[in-house]
Amino acid sequence: MGRGKSLTDFEKGQIKGYIESGLKHNEIAKKIGRSQNVVSNFLRNEADYGKKMIGGKKYATTASERRLILRTASNSHLSASKIRDECGVNASLATVKRVIRSAKHLKRLKIKKKPPLNDARKEARLRFARDHMTWNKEWKAVVFSDEKKFNLDGPDGYNYYFHDMRKEECFLSRHHSCTGGVMVWGAISFYGTCELQFVSSKMNANVYKTVLQKAFPQFSEIFGPIQWTYQQDNAPIHTARVTKQWIKDQNVNLLEWPPYSPDINIIENIWGLLSRRVYEGGRQFQDSATLVEAIKKAWATISLSEIEKYYDSLSNRMFGIIKNRGGHTKY
Questions:
Q1: What's the rounded Cα separation, in Å, for the pair 203 and 209?
Q2: In sequence order, what are the residues at sequence separation of 6 or more whose Cβ sits closer than 8 angstroms to the Cβ of residue 183?
Q3: Fewer CB within 10 Å: C terminus or N terminus of the chain?
């Protein structure tokens, strides 16, 4: 649709007169037979109304600044506001968003929580489920463990990111950089929890072994003479030779865990409970020390009945894997 006819000097005079008499923009538009937009545009900038813009498109950023914004946004979890701060450009937030939207190779996507499963991974999950589908009381002797990241400004990770379609998609991970938060190691048993340990995101196998050295006596005390089993995922520090050998030396069974299977690790559900309590009411934290105290306080509220509920769900999780032929379950 083309532009409408500009206001005449007479119409401009009418508008000024009506506005002085207290009429609203829509009322003036009806009286002079023009659209409300035309009236509002004139009143918004009387001095420049009707002047033609000379020259081509003007940018609030330079070409190099736009390239920097797009490089920073590529597969980034940062918000547009933080991208602007990271780039140090003197431009409005709307301009930065416009630059990102104009890039054909960038698309705003929600991070997928479930990792991809190829045929080999599905087969490993299916084999594990079949081997453990008859377990019932046996699960009560298993200790489930994991690490989790807690951010200062809210629950783990950003829900959305700027996906660069020239790169692989991102999946939600708890094992990423610990900037602006803390990394926590925790474990649960059917009979209770152990003390949380706050660790570095760059933890290696030897440091992980010291974590276990502090935690295992707590579970040995809980189980007494009962033989118990330790569960961990397949992170490199968990599968390292030094880690496995140390666990074996403690006369503790190690549960061989299928790859890419957070949906059957029930401590994931406990992390969910913990996060909701830590960040209840949209709470955010100014420093790590305050966040740590909040996590410890919330961890102490995890009840045995809550833990037992998830242990009771393990049989159904095994059957869920079998039903989905190794695929993801609803958990």
A1: 10
A2: 147, 148, 149, 150, 198, 199, 200, 201, 203
A3: N
pLDDT digit string, tens, across residues 153-200: 776 544 667 777 777 666 655 444 444 789 999 999 999 999 999 998
| CATH topology (fold) of 63-103 | Arc Repressor Mutant, subunit A (1.10.10)
Name the 3-class secondary structure at 53.
Answer: coil
Question: What does the pLDDT look like over 232-254, one tens digit per residue?
Answer: 999 999 999 999 999 999 999 99
**Residue count of the chain:** 331
Mean pLDDT of 224-233: 94
Evaluate whether 315 touches 138 at the Cβ level (below 8 Å). Answer: no
175's CB contacts (< 8 A; 6+ apart) are 147, 149, 201, 235
Q: Residue 329 corresponds to which tokens in the numbers above? A: 């379950």
Query: Which amino acid does the sequence have at 170?
Result: C
Give the CATH number of domain 119-158+174-323.
3.30.420.10
